[in-house]
Amino acid sequence: MAKAKHTINDIQKALLSSTRYIKDEEAEETTLEQSGNAIKPTEAQVNIDPLVMKKIKILAPFEGVTTDELINKALNHYLRLKSLQLDKAVEKLTQE
Amino acid sequence: MANIISVINNKGGTGKTTTVLNLGAALSRKKKRVLLIDLDSQCNLTSAFGVDSNGVGIGELLIGKSDFSEVIKTKGKLSLLPASEKLLDYEFQLSNEPGREYMLREQLERVATNYDYIIIDCPPSLGTLSTNSLVAANHFIVPMQAENFAFIGLDRIMLISEKVKKRMNPDLELAGILFVKLDPRTKFSQAVIHSLSDNQNFKGKLFNTYLRQDISLMESGAFKQTIFEYAPKSRGADDYSDLAKEILKIYG
Question: Which chain A residue's Cα is nearest to B199?
Fold first, then answer.
């Protein structure tokens, strides 16, 4: 089958269909007023404060990770801290 | 005060390293004091400069293990802050550091008066190191081929750079889009160029100079030479010389 012939205009339309900045669209921004309820991410089973979630969404692209990955990373960090606290508490108890 | 230019594209193989090395060399031939920075853990710029990537580099400088004088390498009028193979580990360490986006900027503020141009070779990703380069820079250049994925990549870089500009570096401006390996006769190339030149956001932001396909550019890197040392009469040498002239005309 012969290859379809496209004009420059057709190609431009196809190129622009996958863009946001170049197409001049506003980047998706949710305002705090819009997000009333706690947001549950798709993989982590935790309710997140909307303000915190908004910041995480901003931060994730800078870290080069998805929002879910960043949340899991933060949870992991927090749980490690909790684990250290537990170790210290046990250590203190055994000393007493 | 140096004009700090980040050469960035999260797509690999777009000629970032070649552009940093040869634009730097072209500017130094115009009597400008130039510092190049290799922020890519693949260490290609470091290698093309003829520096061993097992030594200390920008990673050690960023985490405070080494100081500037220990890290910098000089070849003629061109200086380099090399990358070492450990840069990836340091990037991971930096990811837990408060204010990590500002660490390169802090280091460059100390030496910026010693240079006219500082040109940064970014890794092909938009992680901590690339963000550092955009926070430290006044301008950024996006080298790209006139093709679909590069076009989408450019869109992503512009979204990120807008955020960096808004939140961390209000001075950041797009210096220009540099087309590489361009064949302006093809319909597809023309569509890409029109899509950008007709767009208000890119008005005056496409360099008039574009890089033609030239095997000498690839060869020169392998022989650890700039295009001006390896093939001074090649198309690549002409193109990078024109690009330097265009940049000097804008920024002096």
Answer: A22
Q: Tell me if B81 sits within 8 A of B104, measured CB to CB.
A: no
Of B128, B182, B8, the closest CA to residue A64 belongs to B128
Q: Which of B169, B159, B158, B157 is nearest to B132 (CA)?
A: B169
ipTM, two decimals, is 0.73
User: What stretches of chain B show up as alpha helix (H) in DSSP?
Assistant: 16-29, 44-48, 58-62, 68-71, 87-94, 103-111, 128-136, 148-167, 187-197, 215-222, 227-230, 235-251
Separation between Cα atoms, residue B170 and residue B11, nearest integer Å: 25
Residues contacting B14, CB < 8 A, separation 6+:
B143, B144, B145, B150, B180
Taking only the tens of pLDDT, chain B with its 252 residues reads 899 999 999 888 899 999 999 999 999 999 999 999 999 999 999 999 999 988 899 999 999 999 999 999 998 889 999 999 899 888 888 888 888 999 999 999 999 999 999 999 999 988 899 999 999 999 999 999 998 888 888 999 999 999 999 999 999 999 999 999 988 888 889 999 989 988 888 988 999 999 998 999 989 988 999 999 999 999 999 999 999 999 999 998
Chain B contacts in chain A segment 26-45 (CB below 8 A): 27
In whole angstroms, what is the distance from residue A8 CA to residue B207 CA?
Answer: 21
Contact B112, B1 (CB under 8 A): yes
Angle at CA B232, nearest 5°, toward B231 and B238? 110
Is B213 near chain A, with CB under 8 Å? Answer: no
Q: Are A21 and A61 in contact (CB under 8 A)?
A: no
Q: Is the dihedral of CA B118, B125, B175, B161 positive or negative?
A: negative
Question: Phi and psi for B106 in degrees, rounded to 5?
Answer: -60, -45
Residues of A within 8 A of B163 (CB-CB) are: 58, 61-62
The two structure tokens encoding residue B55: 């030594």
